[in-house]
Write a structure and sequence with these properties.
CATH class of chain A: Alpha Beta
Oligomer: homotetramer
Shape of chain A: globular
Structural class of chain A: alpha+beta
């Protein structure tokens, strides 16, 4: 089973067999899986909060980076991608027990580089909490 | 005791009474505390790893965001700062049990905005793992 | 006549009465003007080239910043916006005499901040050359 | 004469034989040239202004991108570097006829990627106007 199919088998469930220990800590529930476009949802836990009891920007950034990395796996290419950089812009707050959704898409796929975007939505997809992008580079490391 | 003094009282120790639940999860040990410049160190735990068993970029990004936020507290100003954006550039890998250090400084402090930088170093400060910056905005929310 | 109407009066023509000397140097032709979304086109001139005779990234960045600023004018708000930061990601090259198009949209409009995006397209809108975003802050400077 | 020596021969003079048409338009005066670190100065011209008669952020961004590209030439390596992305953060304004200085340095040089920074200073190096960074990739295109 390739990575795309493996992720698809978790639709509606927590992706608790991710090969990434940190992704397992984030406990994403897989909502949809397309080649180059994922949708994962998360419940904000107490340990994700900042000193003002809102979703910590560091966790938002971590989710953005993580789900963009998973988006590269969804391409089912033989080589690993490495992240060159992330940018994250913050727009709204969220609170403990809120459900948030991360949605990714590929903006540009070149021969060696991919530029991809991740939006983090709250309130059932009606409030944009943050948006991030990454540039990723195709390594020569085989999966 | 102001926030600067509170952080200084943890020099050499884990900052386990941070008001931020997520910072407590990161378990920083306070190395040095100056107004506008912090140094925290961390030990890479298993749950911080990516699928290739290296430090997950999302955790690096989270640390950058977190310690830049703490740097605002070190200013002992009456108002909260909110993060507008982060950028993180990745340079090197690190592994489980490695010790990494985050060092921050303020690049520009204006009347309403602060631009600050955080470097993540490994191998006893000889290898730059990542570097991030944030733009932060002084809110009217009192601490 | 408000700024939106003023820009609309240039549709199909060079915006040669822009209040911005640098925008006049870029010689945009106005393609479409909506509140919060502009489309301008440009012809790549010899003085816009890099040492390899391709469109210089600095000119691309300048166009991104300029047309995002103009997008703020299209909102017809009483106050000026100032740019906090730009990010620009580069994907493809372009050459002298090529026509390129800049298309903007607002991603998030808050009370004090706007996050907006600009794409630069070549080959009749079929090749994404670059994409940039800005965070802009509503000042108290009246227009 | 290699590129480093060629740039050095312009110290104190306008770099009017740059191989880049756009750099020639910017009319930098070379202040100092080291391997991986340049200092260029510029006089703000009327055509560089925004609608408020201040230095246009797009010109600042263009200078950042341009002088970071020139910094790659100063390395005297056999291959061209291409810019993956720029980030520019804006801090202060400047006016017509002001002299501004761009100073670059390399933050991290890897086998394939370079991360470099450019600061734009005004008022004789006492006011930070803007700061930018780029990730650059070593191509296989020979110079």
């Amino acid at each position: 089973m390739d990575a795309l199919e493996a992720m698809r088998s978790y639709i509606g469930k927590e992706f608790d067999r991710s090969p990434s220990p940190f992704m397992r800590w984030l406990r994403p529930v897989v909502v949809s899986v397309e080649k180059g476009s994922l949708e994962f949802k998360y419940v904000i836990r107490k340990e994700w909060l900042n000193p003002m009891d809102r979703l910590h920007g560091g966790v938002t950034a971590a989710i953005v980076d993580d789900v963009l990395g998973a988006t590269m796996f969804s391409l089912d290419e033989p080589f690993h991608y490495t992240t060159i950089n992330n940018t994250i812009d913050y727009f709204s707050v969220a609170q403990e027990n809120d459900e948030i959704t991360a949605k990714t898409k590929i903006i540009k796929k070149g021969r060696q580089f991919i530029h991809a975007e991740c939006e983090i939505w709250g309130r059932n997809g009606t409030r944009l909490i943050a948006r991030g992008t990454s540039n990723l580079f195709k390594t020569q490391i085989k999966k």
